[in-house]
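Students often ask why inverse folding is considered easier than folding. One informal answer: many sequences map to the same fold, so there is more than one right answer. In these notes we will look at a single instance of the problem. The structure comes first.
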Protein backbone atom coordinates (compact mmCIF):
# COMPACT_ATOMS: atom_id res chain seq x y z
CA UNK A 1 0.00 0.00 0.00
CA UNK A 2 2.94 2.36 0.58
CA UNK A 3 3.68 2.57 -3.16
CA UNK A 4 0.06 3.29 -4.00
CA UNK A 5 -0.17 6.05 -1.41
CA UNK A 6 3.02 7.66 -2.73
CA UNK A 7 1.58 7.71 -6.25
CA UNK A 8 -1.60 9.50 -5.11
CA UNK A 9 -1.53 13.11 -3.89
CA UNK A 10 -3.80 15.32 -1.85
CA UNK A 11 -4.40 18.93 -2.83
CA UNK A 12 -1.76 20.01 -0.30
CA UNK A 13 0.73 17.49 -1.72
CA UNK A 14 0.01 18.81 -5.21
CA UNK A 15 0.61 22.40 -4.11
CA UNK A 16 3.91 21.46 -2.46
CA UNK A 17 5.15 19.58 -5.54
CA UNK A 18 4.18 22.45 -7.88
CA UNK A 19 5.52 25.13 -5.55
CA UNK A 20 2.19 27.02 -5.42
CA UNK A 21 -0.34 27.83 -2.71
CA UNK A 22 -2.98 25.30 -1.71
CA UNK A 23 -5.64 27.69 -3.02
CA UNK A 24 -3.95 27.83 -6.44
CA UNK A 25 -3.75 24.04 -6.53
CA UNK A 26 -7.46 23.86 -5.65
CA UNK A 27 -8.31 26.18 -8.54
CA UNK A 28 -6.21 24.12 -10.98
CA UNK A 29 -7.85 20.90 -9.83
CA UNK A 30 -11.41 22.20 -9.71
CA UNK A 31 -10.98 23.88 -13.09
CA UNK A 32 -9.88 20.64 -14.71
CA UNK A 33 -6.33 21.76 -15.53
CA UNK A 34 -5.11 18.89 -13.36
CA UNK A 35 -7.00 15.57 -13.76
CA UNK A 36 -8.45 14.40 -10.44
CA UNK A 37 -11.19 12.33 -8.84
CA UNK A 38 -13.18 12.37 -5.61
CA UNK A 39 -12.86 9.85 -2.81
CA UNK A 40 -16.03 8.47 -1.20
CA UNK A 41 -15.51 11.15 1.45
CA UNK A 42 -15.59 13.93 -1.16
CA UNK A 43 -11.87 14.77 -1.15
CA UNK A 44 -10.01 15.44 -4.39
CA UNK A 45 -7.06 13.20 -5.26
CA UNK A 46 -4.45 13.54 -8.02
CA UNK A 47 -2.02 11.10 -9.59
CA UNK A 48 1.62 12.04 -9.06
CA UNK A 49 2.45 11.12 -12.68
CA UNK A 50 0.10 13.86 -13.92
CA UNK A 51 1.89 16.46 -11.77
CA UNK A 52 5.32 15.24 -12.93
CA UNK A 53 4.18 15.60 -16.54
CA UNK A 54 2.89 19.11 -15.84
CA UNK A 55 6.18 20.14 -14.24
CA UNK A 56 8.13 18.82 -17.23
CA UNK A 57 5.84 20.55 -19.71
CA UNK A 58 4.31 17.32 -20.99
CA UNK A 59 0.66 16.47 -21.43
CA UNK A 60 -0.44 13.76 -18.95
CA UNK A 61 0.17 10.34 -20.43
CA UNK A 62 2.84 11.42 -22.94
CA UNK A 63 6.27 9.72 -22.87
CA UNK A 64 8.99 11.02 -20.57
CA UNK A 65 12.12 12.45 -22.23
CA UNK A 66 14.90 10.00 -23.02
CA UNK A 67 18.63 10.22 -22.32
CA UNK A 68 19.54 7.36 -24.65
CA UNK A 69 21.36 7.87 -27.96
CA UNK A 70 21.59 5.17 -30.64
CA UNK A 71 24.86 5.18 -32.58
CA UNK A 72 25.35 3.21 -35.82
CA UNK A 73 28.93 3.09 -37.10
CA UNK A 74 31.51 0.95 -38.96
CA UNK A 75 32.95 -1.87 -36.84
CA UNK A 76 36.44 -0.33 -36.72
CA UNK A 77 35.06 2.94 -35.32
CA UNK A 78 32.90 1.44 -32.56
CA UNK A 79 35.68 1.59 -29.89
CA UNK A 80 36.18 5.28 -30.69
CA UNK A 81 32.51 6.02 -30.05
CA UNK A 82 32.60 3.98 -26.85
CA UNK A 83 35.49 6.11 -25.60
CA UNK A 84 33.78 9.35 -26.58
CA UNK A 85 30.49 8.55 -24.89
CA UNK A 86 32.10 7.05 -21.77
CA UNK A 87 32.90 10.59 -20.64
CA UNK A 88 29.51 12.13 -21.52
CA UNK A 89 27.31 12.63 -18.48
CA UNK A 90 24.19 13.77 -20.34
CA UNK A 91 23.24 10.50 -22.05
CA UNK A 92 23.73 6.78 -22.40
CA UNK A 93 24.81 5.49 -25.83
CA UNK A 94 23.65 2.23 -27.39
CA UNK A 95 26.32 1.58 -30.05
CA UNK A 96 25.76 -0.76 -33.01
CA UNK A 97 27.71 -2.02 -35.98
CA UNK A 98 24.70 -3.95 -37.30
CA UNK A 99 22.08 -1.72 -38.95
CA UNK A 100 19.19 -4.15 -38.45
CA UNK A 101 19.87 -4.43 -34.70
CA UNK A 102 20.14 -0.64 -34.53
CA UNK A 103 16.79 -0.14 -36.26
CA UNK A 104 15.11 -2.57 -33.87
CA UNK A 105 16.62 -0.70 -30.92
CA UNK A 106 15.43 2.66 -32.27
CA UNK A 107 11.87 1.37 -32.52
CA UNK A 108 12.00 -0.22 -29.08
CA UNK A 109 13.59 2.49 -26.94
CA UNK A 110 12.64 5.73 -28.78
CA UNK A 111 16.03 7.41 -28.25
CA UNK A 112 16.50 11.14 -27.86
CA UNK A 113 18.90 11.09 -30.84
CA UNK A 114 20.22 8.84 -33.58
CA UNK A 115 23.79 9.18 -34.83
CA UNK A 116 24.68 7.47 -38.13
CA UNK A 117 28.33 7.34 -39.22
CA UNK A 118 28.57 7.53 -43.03
CA UNK A 119 32.32 8.04 -43.23
CA UNK A 120 32.67 4.95 -45.44
CA UNK A 121 29.51 5.72 -47.49
CA UNK A 122 27.99 2.38 -46.46
CA UNK A 123 24.72 1.77 -48.32
CA UNK A 124 22.93 0.00 -45.44
CA UNK A 125 23.65 2.79 -42.98
CA UNK A 126 22.56 5.38 -45.54
CA UNK A 127 19.30 3.47 -46.02
CA UNK A 128 18.83 3.38 -42.24
CA UNK A 129 19.33 7.15 -42.08
CA UNK A 130 16.63 7.71 -44.71
CA UNK A 131 14.31 5.26 -42.94
CA UNK A 132 14.68 7.01 -39.60
CA UNK A 133 14.16 10.45 -41.15
CA UNK A 134 10.96 9.19 -42.81
CA UNK A 135 9.51 7.81 -39.56
CA UNK A 136 9.04 10.53 -36.93
CA UNK A 137 6.80 8.10 -35.03
CA UNK A 138 9.99 6.39 -33.85
CA UNK A 139 10.17 9.17 -31.29
CA UNK A 140 13.72 10.43 -31.81
CA UNK A 141 14.46 14.11 -31.28
CA UNK A 142 17.61 14.60 -33.37
CA UNK A 143 19.33 12.80 -36.26
CA UNK A 144 23.04 13.32 -36.90
CA UNK A 145 24.89 12.03 -39.95
CA UNK A 146 28.68 11.87 -39.72
CA UNK A 147 30.06 12.70 -43.17
CA UNK A 148 32.78 14.85 -44.69
CA UNK A 149 31.80 18.43 -45.42
CA UNK A 150 30.79 21.55 -43.52
CA UNK A 151 28.13 21.48 -40.82
CA UNK A 152 24.77 21.85 -42.52
CA UNK A 153 21.11 21.09 -42.03
CA UNK A 154 20.34 17.89 -43.91
CA UNK A 155 16.70 18.82 -44.44
CA UNK A 156 14.20 21.53 -43.60
CA UNK A 157 12.86 19.84 -40.46
CA UNK A 158 15.69 21.01 -38.23
CA UNK A 159 15.96 17.47 -36.82
CA UNK A 160 18.62 16.03 -39.16
CA UNK A 161 22.13 17.47 -39.43
CA UNK A 162 25.34 16.55 -41.22
CA UNK A 163 28.44 16.89 -39.06
CA UNK A 164 32.05 16.29 -40.08
CA UNK A 165 33.51 14.37 -37.11
CA UNK A 166 32.37 12.16 -34.22
CA UNK A 167 33.78 14.68 -31.72
CA UNK A 168 31.70 17.50 -33.22
CA UNK A 169 28.64 15.24 -33.20
CA UNK A 170 29.03 14.46 -29.49
CA UNK A 171 29.46 18.17 -28.69
CA UNK A 172 26.31 18.95 -30.70
CA UNK A 173 24.36 16.25 -28.86
CA UNK A 174 25.40 17.65 -25.49
CA UNK A 175 24.10 21.08 -26.48
CA UNK A 176 20.88 19.52 -27.76
CA UNK A 177 20.34 17.62 -24.48
CA UNK A 178 21.07 20.60 -22.23
CA UNK A 179 18.34 21.89 -19.94
CA UNK A 180 16.27 24.74 -21.33
CA UNK A 181 15.91 26.46 -17.96
CA UNK A 182 17.98 26.95 -14.78
CA UNK A 183 19.31 23.86 -13.01
CA UNK A 184 17.75 23.11 -9.64
CA UNK A 185 20.94 22.88 -7.55
CA UNK A 186 22.23 25.28 -4.90
CA UNK A 187 23.90 28.42 -6.27
CA UNK A 188 27.67 28.17 -6.22
CA UNK A 189 27.66 24.38 -5.83
CA UNK A 190 31.22 23.07 -5.64
CA UNK A 191 30.46 19.79 -7.42
CA UNK A 192 30.21 19.18 -11.18
CA UNK A 193 26.83 18.61 -12.88
CA UNK A 194 25.69 17.50 -16.33
CA UNK A 195 24.17 19.99 -18.75
CA UNK A 196 20.81 18.22 -18.37
CA UNK A 197 20.84 17.98 -14.57
CA UNK A 198 17.26 19.29 -14.42
CA UNK A 199 16.09 16.40 -16.62
CA UNK A 200 18.07 13.95 -14.47
CA UNK A 201 16.38 15.28 -11.33
CA UNK A 202 12.97 14.92 -13.01
CA UNK A 203 13.86 11.30 -13.83
CA UNK A 204 14.82 10.72 -10.20
CA UNK A 205 11.43 12.10 -9.12
CA UNK A 206 9.68 9.81 -11.62
CA UNK A 207 11.44 6.80 -10.11
CA UNK A 208 9.55 7.32 -6.85
CA UNK A 209 12.49 5.90 -4.87
CA UNK A 210 13.69 8.83 -2.76
CA UNK A 211 12.77 8.56 0.94
CA UNK A 212 11.20 5.12 0.52
CA UNK A 213 11.65 2.19 2.92
CA UNK A 214 14.56 -0.25 2.56
CA UNK A 215 14.04 -3.05 0.04
CA UNK A 216 15.69 -6.45 0.11
CA UNK A 217 16.45 -6.40 -3.62
CA UNK A 218 18.72 -3.35 -3.18
CA UNK A 219 20.12 -4.53 0.15
CA UNK A 220 21.28 -7.75 -1.50
CA UNK A 221 23.23 -5.69 -4.06
CA UNK A 222 25.08 -3.57 -1.48
CA UNK A 223 25.80 -6.66 0.63
CA UNK A 224 27.25 -8.45 -2.40
CA UNK A 225 29.29 -5.39 -3.40
CA UNK A 226 30.86 -5.13 0.06
CA UNK A 227 31.63 -8.86 0.21
CA UNK A 228 32.89 -9.19 -3.36
CA UNK A 229 35.21 -6.17 -3.16
CA UNK A 230 36.14 -6.77 0.50
CA UNK A 231 35.02 -3.25 1.40
CA UNK A 232 33.69 -2.16 4.81
CA UNK A 233 31.14 0.23 3.24
CA UNK A 234 28.81 -0.16 0.27
CA UNK A 235 26.06 2.27 -0.69
CA UNK A 236 23.32 2.65 -3.28
CA UNK A 237 22.96 6.42 -3.53
CA UNK A 238 20.34 8.70 -5.07
CA UNK A 239 21.38 12.31 -5.77
CA UNK A 240 18.73 15.00 -5.18
CA UNK A 241 19.44 18.75 -5.60
CA UNK A 242 20.75 19.03 -2.05
CA UNK A 243 21.11 15.50 -0.66
CA UNK A 244 22.92 12.24 -1.25
CA UNK A 245 20.29 9.83 0.06
CA UNK A 246 21.05 6.15 0.56
CA UNK A 247 18.40 3.78 -0.74
CA UNK A 248 20.55 0.97 0.65
CA UNK A 249 23.61 1.07 2.87
CA UNK A 250 26.01 -1.51 4.28
CA UNK A 251 28.53 -0.60 6.97
CA UNK A 252 27.35 3.00 7.46
CA UNK A 253 24.78 4.35 9.92
CA UNK A 254 24.11 7.70 8.19
CA UNK A 255 20.91 7.66 6.07
CA UNK A 256 22.15 10.56 3.91
CA UNK A 257 24.75 13.32 3.53
CA UNK A 258 24.73 16.77 1.93
CA UNK A 259 25.15 16.40 -1.81
CA UNK A 260 28.32 18.48 -1.66
CA UNK A 261 29.95 15.55 0.20
CA UNK A 262 29.10 13.03 -2.55
CA UNK A 263 31.98 11.45 -4.46
CA UNK A 264 29.16 10.07 -6.62
CA UNK A 265 28.76 13.53 -8.21
CA UNK A 266 31.70 12.50 -10.39
CA UNK A 267 30.51 8.93 -10.86
CA UNK A 268 27.22 9.89 -12.56
CA UNK A 269 29.08 11.98 -15.16
CA UNK A 270 30.68 8.93 -16.79
CA UNK A 271 29.64 5.41 -17.71
CA UNK A 272 32.33 3.12 -16.33
CA UNK A 273 33.81 2.79 -12.85
CA UNK A 274 35.06 5.97 -11.21
CA UNK A 275 37.67 5.19 -8.55
CA UNK A 276 40.03 7.15 -6.33
CA UNK A 277 42.91 5.23 -4.73
CA UNK A 278 43.58 7.80 -1.98
CA UNK A 279 40.92 10.45 -1.38
CA UNK A 280 43.19 12.37 1.01
CA UNK A 281 45.78 12.99 -1.72
CA UNK A 282 43.24 14.02 -4.38
CA UNK A 283 42.68 17.82 -4.37
CA UNK A 284 39.02 17.31 -5.35
CA UNK A 285 38.31 15.38 -2.15
CA UNK A 286 41.04 16.11 0.39
CA UNK A 287 38.90 18.73 2.18
CA UNK A 288 35.70 16.68 2.07
CA UNK A 289 34.35 16.37 5.65
CA UNK A 290 34.11 12.58 5.28
CA UNK A 291 37.80 12.47 4.34
CA UNK A 292 39.33 15.23 6.49
CA UNK A 293 37.18 14.26 9.50
CA UNK A 294 35.17 11.26 10.59
CA UNK A 295 34.90 8.55 9.33
CA UNK A 296 38.21 9.27 7.53
CA UNK A 297 37.47 7.65 4.18
CA UNK A 298 40.40 6.96 1.87
CA UNK A 299 39.25 4.77 -1.03
CA UNK A 300 36.20 5.10 -3.30
CA UNK A 301 34.90 3.22 -6.35
CA UNK A 302 31.47 3.70 -7.91
CA UNK A 303 29.47 3.23 -11.10
CA UNK A 304 26.18 4.85 -12.22
CA UNK A 305 22.69 3.45 -11.69
CA UNK A 306 20.66 4.11 -14.86
CA UNK A 307 16.89 4.37 -15.13
CA UNK A 308 14.70 3.16 -17.99
CA UNK A 309 15.40 6.30 -20.08
CA UNK A 310 19.16 6.21 -19.52
CA UNK A 311 19.39 8.91 -16.83
CA UNK A 312 21.92 8.36 -14.04
CA UNK A 313 19.72 8.66 -10.95
CA UNK A 314 22.47 7.60 -8.58
CA UNK A 315 25.29 5.13 -8.10
CA UNK A 316 26.48 1.91 -6.53
CA UNK A 317 29.74 2.47 -4.67
CA UNK A 318 32.14 0.93 -2.18
CA UNK A 319 34.48 2.76 0.21
CA UNK A 320 37.36 1.88 2.49
CA UNK A 321 39.28 3.48 5.35
CA UNK A 322 42.63 2.72 3.71
CA UNK A 323 44.07 3.61 0.31
CA UNK A 324 43.91 0.78 -2.21
CA UNK A 325 44.02 0.03 -5.92
CA UNK A 326 40.88 -1.21 -7.65
CA UNK A 327 41.63 -4.46 -9.47
CA UNK A 328 40.15 -5.21 -12.90
CA UNK A 329 38.06 -8.13 -11.65
CA UNK A 330 36.69 -5.89 -8.88
CA UNK A 331 35.72 -3.22 -11.40
CA UNK A 332 33.92 -5.82 -13.52
CA UNK A 333 32.07 -7.13 -10.46
CA UNK A 334 30.97 -3.62 -9.51
CA UNK A 335 29.69 -2.99 -13.05
CA UNK A 336 27.72 -6.25 -12.99
CA UNK A 337 26.14 -5.46 -9.63
CA UNK A 338 25.26 -1.92 -10.77
CA UNK A 339 23.54 -3.44 -13.81
CA UNK A 340 21.42 -5.57 -11.44
CA UNK A 341 20.54 -2.50 -9.39
CA UNK A 342 19.66 -0.57 -12.56
CA UNK A 343 17.32 -3.38 -13.57
CA UNK A 344 15.56 -3.12 -10.21
CA UNK A 345 15.15 0.65 -10.70
CA UNK A 346 13.74 0.11 -14.19
CA UNK A 347 11.28 -2.50 -12.94
CA UNK A 348 9.92 -0.03 -10.43
CA UNK A 349 9.57 2.71 -13.07
CA UNK A 350 7.81 0.22 -15.36
CA UNK A 351 5.44 -0.74 -12.54
CA UNK A 352 4.53 2.89 -11.92
CA UNK A 353 3.86 3.40 -15.61
CA UNK A 354 1.67 0.30 -15.73
CA UNK A 355 -0.33 1.54 -12.77
CA UNK A 356 -0.68 4.96 -14.42
CA UNK A 357 -1.80 3.38 -17.71
CA UNK A 358 -4.38 1.21 -15.96
CA UNK A 359 -5.73 4.20 -14.07
CA UNK A 360 -5.99 6.25 -17.24
CA UNK A 361 -7.79 3.41 -18.99
CA UNK A 362 -10.42 3.37 -16.23
CA UNK A 363 -10.64 7.15 -15.92
CA UNK A 364 -13.85 8.41 -17.55
CA UNK A 365 -13.87 11.29 -20.04
CA UNK A 366 -12.59 14.39 -18.28
CA UNK A 367 -10.74 12.28 -15.71
CA UNK A 368 -12.68 13.80 -12.81
CA UNK A 369 -14.45 10.97 -11.02
CA UNK A 370 -15.73 7.42 -11.23
CA UNK A 371 -13.78 4.19 -11.62
CA UNK A 372 -10.41 5.91 -11.27
CA UNK A 373 -11.13 6.13 -7.55
CA UNK A 374 -10.35 2.44 -7.38
CA UNK A 375 -6.83 3.04 -8.72
CA UNK A 376 -4.89 2.31 -5.49
CA UNK A 377 -6.25 -1.24 -5.42
CA UNK A 378 -4.73 -1.91 -8.82
CA UNK A 379 -1.11 -1.45 -7.82
CA UNK A 380 1.22 -4.10 -9.23
CA UNK A 381 2.90 -6.17 -6.52
CA UNK A 382 6.35 -7.75 -6.60
CA UNK A 383 7.49 -10.56 -4.35
CA UNK A 384 10.53 -9.51 -2.39
CA UNK A 385 13.44 -11.90 -2.11
CA UNK A 386 15.54 -12.61 0.95
CA UNK A 387 18.69 -10.76 1.81
CA UNK A 388 21.64 -12.96 2.75
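Output (designed amino acids):
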Amino acid sequence: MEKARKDILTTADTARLLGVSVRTAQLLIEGGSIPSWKTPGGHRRVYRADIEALIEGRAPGTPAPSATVVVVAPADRLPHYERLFSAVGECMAEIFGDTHAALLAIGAIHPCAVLVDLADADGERLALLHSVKANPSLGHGRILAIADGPDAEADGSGLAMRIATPEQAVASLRRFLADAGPVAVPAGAAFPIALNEGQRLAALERSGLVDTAPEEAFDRVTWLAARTLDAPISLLTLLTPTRQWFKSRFGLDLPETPRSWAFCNYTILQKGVFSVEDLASDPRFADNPAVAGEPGLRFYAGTPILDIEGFAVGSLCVMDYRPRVLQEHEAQALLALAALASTEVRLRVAERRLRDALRRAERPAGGRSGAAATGPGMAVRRRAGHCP
